């Protein structure tokens, strides 16, 4: 029986999950592949910590070189994360003629073009299902099952940490800081949660999804990114009163030769399926011209779900090798010569509905001052809430607008926030009432 050998870079949480799949499902893998898939080497700087699984000491090494240069290893699994040395390791694996499986969304978002180009020249495969959505098979769905469609839009809940925090805030009326602290204690948030809560992680994933769906290259730095750290329990309460729920949404759209790519807290109607995606779960909603709307939902992170996606890629490579079909599907779903350079729409040109929460002194004429300045910039009011407070106290005035341009909203708020009656910067949240 033919044997295919794999080497693993990174023996952390996901790496442990991959090892467990090799050990627990070896017989299943052999039956599905008709070949023996062997984990020949595991490289990590720490090979002494007990991970709760038994691994032969002979396959452990602290040297990545022993994986990258071993001529018997066919597939390198990169699970160390980050930009460097992951980039250098992946490029060296490719240079040595090895196929690569990675879960590293940050690496692909910034250096994907360099990596895919190197792989194409060398005739090897780079697969990355686990880089977006954990155990959700969104990459293969776009590249394979749905590839006959022109995609119009992507809406994704792509970060489990943020979704867990917002879910807790929604269900319990808790404030952001307290929920984050609890999430860190439970292991749902990192000690330094910046990449998660400020939307960076979701933006890395959106860069990959927009490229796959729209056949273009979207630079990570061109994606507007706004996190959830400024969302308050008050915003969530008002959203519910209007019939909405707040989610950190990754949004990609293609319209008239331009791409919208942004990550932001977004209000979506309570009756939309995405609004029911709670806790640490992820979901991606795509709209194709023939298939229509499709939503995939599942565990977006975690040892076992992510290991499942990693091993699916490993097995796909083995099958391609067995069939002589390496490179059958382009890495980004389009033939390289057909990848277009669509411009990314500037945020100032975005058109949306808006939730605006003003904190103003309760004095006569305040609403008139606010509405007049909105009107000057062609912003019309769809609905409003103004809770009763004691006279003279600062009160929230919440306005939902009709569609308006981001540029006009920003100009109006710049003037409104300078009014003497306004006590705090206005809180703005964009609304997606129609997920096209």
Q: What is this entry, summarized?
A:
Residues 355-430 form the ACT domain. This protein is of the alpha/beta class and 436 residues long.
What would the keywords be for this entry?
Rossmann fold, 436 residues, 17 strands, 11-stranded mixed beta sheet, methionine biosynthesis, elongated, 14 helices, Alpha-Beta Plaits, 6-stranded parallel beta sheet, alpha/beta, Dihydrodipicolinate Reductase, domain 2, amino-acid biosynthesis, HDH_CS, 3 domains
How many beta-strand runs?
17
Largest sheet: 11 strands, mixed
Instruction: State the shape.
Output: elongated
Please report the first level of CATH classification, the CATH class of the largest domain: Alpha Beta
What's the structural domain tally?
3
Strand-residue fraction?
25-35%
End-to-end CA span: 50 Å
CATH architecture call of the largest domain: 3-Layer(aba) Sandwich
As a percent range, the share of helical residues equals: 25-40%
| Quaternary structure classification | single chain
Describe, in plain words, how this protein is organized in 3D.
The protein is of the alpha/beta class. The chain has 3 domains: 3-134 and 303-337, NAD(P)-binding Rossmann-like Domain (Rossmann fold), CATH 3.40.50.720; 138-298, Dihydrodipicolinate Reductase, domain 2, CATH 3.30.360.10; 347-431, Alpha-Beta Plaits. Helices cover 36% and strands 26% of the residues. The chain has 14 helices and 17 strands. The chain has helices at 13-24, 26-33, 65-68, 86-95, 105-122, 138-145, 160-172, 176-185, 194-197, 200-214, 233-242, 303-323, 366-376, 406-416, and strands at residues 3-9, 36-43, 60-61, 75-78, 99-102, 126-127, 151-157, 224-225, 244-255, 258-269, 281-288, 292-299, 351-361, 381-385, 394-401, 404-405, 422-431. The chain starts with a strand and ends in a 5-residue tail after the last strand. It is an enzyme of class 1 (oxidoreductase). It catalyses: L-homoserine + NADP(+) = L-aspartate 4-semialdehyde + NADPH + H(+). Pathway: Amino-acid biosynthesis; L-methionine biosynthesis via de novo pathway; L-homoserine from L-aspartate: step 3/3; Amino-acid biosynthesis; L-threonine biosynthesis; L-threonine from L-aspartate: step 3/5. Its EC number is 1.1.1.3.
């Amino acid at each position: 029986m033919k044997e295919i050998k794999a080497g693993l870079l990174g023996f952390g949480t996901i790496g442990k999950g991959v090892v467990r799949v090799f050990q627990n499902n070896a017989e299943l893998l052999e039956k599905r592949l008709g070949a023996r898939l062997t984990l020949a080497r595991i490289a990590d700087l720490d090979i002494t910590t007990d991970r709760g699984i038994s691994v032969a000491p002979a396959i452990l090494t602290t040297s990545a070189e022993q994986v990258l240069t071993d001529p018997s290893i066919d597939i390198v699994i990169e699970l160390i994360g980050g930009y460097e040395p992951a980039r250098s390791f992946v490029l060296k694996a490719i240079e040595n003629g090895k196929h690569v499986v990675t879960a590293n969304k940050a690496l692909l978002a910034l250096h994907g073009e360099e990596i895919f180009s190197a792989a194409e020249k060398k005739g090897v495969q780079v697969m990355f299902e686990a880089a977006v959505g954990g155990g959700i098979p969104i990459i293969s769905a776009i590249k394979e099952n749905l590839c006959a469609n022109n995609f119009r839009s992507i809406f994704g809940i792509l970060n489990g940490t943020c979704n867990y925090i917002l879910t807790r805030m929604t269900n319990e009326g808790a404030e952001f800081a307290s929920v984050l602290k609890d999430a860190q204690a439970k292991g749902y948030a990192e000690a330094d949660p910046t990449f998660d809560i400020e939307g960076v992680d979701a933006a890395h994933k959106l860069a990959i999804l927009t490229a796959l769906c729209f056949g273009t290259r979207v630079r990570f730095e061109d994606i507007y990114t706004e996190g959830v750290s400024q969302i308050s329990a008050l915003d969530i309460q008002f959203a519910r009163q209007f019939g909405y729920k707040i989610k950190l949404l990754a949004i990609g759209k293609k319209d008239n030769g331009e791409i919208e790519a942004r990550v932001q807290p977004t209000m979506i109607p309570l009756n939309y399926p995405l609004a029911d995606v709670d806790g640490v779960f992820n979901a991606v909603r795509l709209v194709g011209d023939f298939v229509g709307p499709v939503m995939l939902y599942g565990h977006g992170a975690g040892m076992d779900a992510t290991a499942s996606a990693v091993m699916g890629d490993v097995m796909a490579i083995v099958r391609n090798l067995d069939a002589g079909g390496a490179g059958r599907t382009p890495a980004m779903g389009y033939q390289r010569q057909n990848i277009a350079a669509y411009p990314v729409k500037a945020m100032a040109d975005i058109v949306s509905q808006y939730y605006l929460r003003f904190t103003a002194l309760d004095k006569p004429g305040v609403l008139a001052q606010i509405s007049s300045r909105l009107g000057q910039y062609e912003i019309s009011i769809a609905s409003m809430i103004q809770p009763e407070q004691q006279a003279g106290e600062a009160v929230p005035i919440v306005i939902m607008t009709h569609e308006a341009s981001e540029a006009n909203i920003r100009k109006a708020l710049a003037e409104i926030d300078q009014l003497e009656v306004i006590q705090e910067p206005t809180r703005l949240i964009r609304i997606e009432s129609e997920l096209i």
